[in-house]
């Protein structure tokens, strides 16, 4: 019996047992055959897929069957604004941009600026503040190198007349008991949150509505978001559209240990707005894989799986496999001084953030070319 854990759209608790989740959710592992197929079709496999940050999927093989026959897919993902983006939030957008580049995919990005306003208890988020945060997120996302001709970003409150019409169709197939069971909602859940899944489902078939024929869709997301699509895919199918393919990522660990880089403790995560000094400070305090005593360390060596510095390199900041192997080995054998280890990571993060800021400055005034409103 695995330890208790919980992964759904509104809470991630405990140590997630990913193998168990694959069985429970009825999803499939991204195996070597699928990686080889992606490599064959894309000419490359992103290190986030290769190294298993993206570890599971739904219907990726069906999607690639279609792609190989000349049927192009589009990519859909999103983020609910709640308080500024962390580097961990970028995972799905980095993946979407890569898929755009390698598969020529159009990209749709939903910013549900009502979601956290509705679902988060005990915060003072207003629709005004989530709206503002949404625009900040949109700029952070667009600056990751998306092609403005092939990328559309929208806020739910601003694209509502298009989205709502489709959400209503989805909602007709989602009963209260389906949603209650899937999310564990009770009688105290507000009805906006109960309806919300229908809004998140829409962009997964919106292109088909627009095109007047089925267009395949791929959704990169964190495992916590699978639940929305678990229920919505059936509704989408009943409406006569292709069920979207999904690729699931695990979570980037928090800097201080723990399963998910939570946005609620600012020291646990690197924010895109963090100054170079703040980044250095946070990385310096990050958990490493060193054993508790010198004696144990000598006998067992460090544990790269526990080390946030190793994990950040592996999943986000060190694309070069040889350099990564050196870092992981250094940790395991204890040959790398922890100070060096941290300094090196902080420098990589700061370099990334500086470039990202520069790109934001470059595109800030042309954001309208990305935004959809109706
Ligand atoms: N619900 C997501 C969040 O909490 C935001 C989101 C909207 C999303 N549409 C999506 C995430 C599609 C993944 C895929 O951040």
Properties at a glance:
alpha/beta, Rossmann fold, Tyrosyl-Transfer RNA Synthetase, 2 domains, two-stranded antiparallel sheet, 17 helices, 9 strands, globular
SSE layout and pairing:
Layout: E1 6-8, E2 11-13, H1 18-25, E3 28-29, H2 32-42, H3 47-50, E4 54-58, H4 60-68, E5 74-78, H5 91-103, E6 107-111, H6 115-119, H7 127-142, E7 151-155, H8 160-171, H9 176-183, H10 191-201, H11 206-211, E8 217-222, H12 226-238, E9 245-249, H13 276-284, H14 294-300, H15 308-317, H16 321-333, H17 338-363
Parallel strand pairs: 5-6, 5-8, 6-7, 8-9
Antiparallel strand pairs: 1-2, 3-4, 4-9
Helix pairs in contact: 2-4, 8-10, 9-12, 10-12, 13-17, 15-17
The structure holds tryptophan.
Task: Please provide a written account of the structure.
The chain folds into 2 domains: 6-250, HUPs (Rossmann fold); 266-362, Tyrosyl-Transfer RNA Synthetase (Orthogonal Bundle), CATH 1.10.240.10. It is built from 17 helices and 9 strands. It has helices at residues 18-25, 32-42, 47-50, 60-68, 91-103, 115-119, 127-142, 160-171, 176-183, 191-201, 206-211, 226-238, 276-284, 294-300, 308-317, 321-333, 338-363; strands at 6-8, 11-13, 28-29, 54-58, 74-78, 107-111, 151-155, 217-222, 245-249. The chain has a 7-stranded mixed beta sheet. The radius of gyration is 21 Å and the shape is globular. The termini are far apart.
According to CATH, the fold-level topology of the largest domain is: Rossmann fold
Counted up, domains total 2
List all distinct small molecules, including ions and cofactors, that are bound in this structure.
Answer: tryptophan
Structural class: alpha/beta
Which runs of at least 5 residues are low in confidence (pLDDT < 50)? Answer: none
Task: List how many beta strands DSSP finds.
Answer: 9
CATH superfamily of the largest domain: HUPs
Oligomer: single chain
Strand content: 5-15%
Globular, elongated, flat, extended or rod-shaped: what is the shape?
globular
Put simply, the count of helices is 17
- The end-to-end distance, rounded to whole angstroms, is 50 Å
Helix content: 40-55%
Strand arrangement within the widest β-sheet reads 3-4-9-8-5-6-7
- Largest sheet composition: 7 strands, mixed
SSE order: EEHEHHEHEHEHHEHHHHEHEHHHHH
């Amino acid at each position: 019996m695995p330890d208790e854990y919980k992964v759904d759209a509104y809470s991630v608790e405990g140590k997630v047992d990913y193998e168990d989740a694959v069985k429970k959710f009825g999803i499939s592992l991204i195996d070597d055959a699928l990686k080889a197929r992606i490599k064959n079709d894309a000419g490359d496999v992103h290190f986030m897929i290769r190294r298993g940050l993206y570890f599971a999927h739904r219907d990726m093989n069906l999607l690639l069957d279609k792609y190989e026959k000349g049927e192009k897919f589009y990519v859909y993902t999103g983020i609910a604004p709640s308080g500024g983006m962390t580097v961990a939030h970028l995972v799905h957008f980095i993946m979407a941009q890569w898929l755009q580049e390698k598969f020529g995919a159009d990209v749709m990005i939903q910013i549900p600026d009502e979601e956290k306003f509705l679902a988060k208890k005990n915060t003072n988020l207003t629709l005004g503040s989530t709206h503002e945060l949404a625009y900040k997120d949109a700029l952070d996302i667009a600056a990751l190198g998306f092609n403005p001709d092939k990328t559309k970003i929208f806020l739910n409150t601003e694209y509502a007349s298009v989205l709502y019409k489709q959400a209503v169709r989805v909602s007709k197939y989602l009963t209260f008991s389906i949603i209650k069971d899937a999310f564990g909602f009770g009688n105290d859940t507000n009805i906006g949150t109960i309806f919300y899944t229908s809004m998140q489902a829409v962009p997964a078939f919106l292109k088909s509505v627009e095109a007047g024929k089925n267009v395949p869709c791929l959704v990169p997301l964190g495992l916590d978001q699978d639940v929305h699509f678990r229920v919505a895919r059936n509704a989408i199918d009943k409406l006569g559209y292709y069920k979207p393919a999904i690729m699931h990522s695990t979570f980037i660990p928090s800097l201080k240990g723990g399963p998910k880089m939570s946005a609620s403790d600012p020291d646990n995560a690197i924010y895109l707005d963090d100054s170079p000094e703040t980044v250095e400070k946070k990385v310096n305090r990050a958990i490493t894989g060193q054993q508790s005593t010198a004696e144990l360390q000598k006998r067992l060596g460090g544990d790269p799986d526990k080390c946030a510095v190793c994990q950040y390199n592996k999943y986000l900041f060190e694309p070069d496999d040889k350099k990564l192997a050196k870092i992981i080995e250094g940790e395991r054998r204890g040959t790398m001084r922890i100070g060096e280890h941290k300094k090196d990571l902080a420098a990589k993060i700061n370099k990334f953030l500086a470039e990202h800021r520069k790109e934001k400055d470059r595109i800030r005034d042309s954001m309208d070319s990305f935004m959809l409103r109706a």
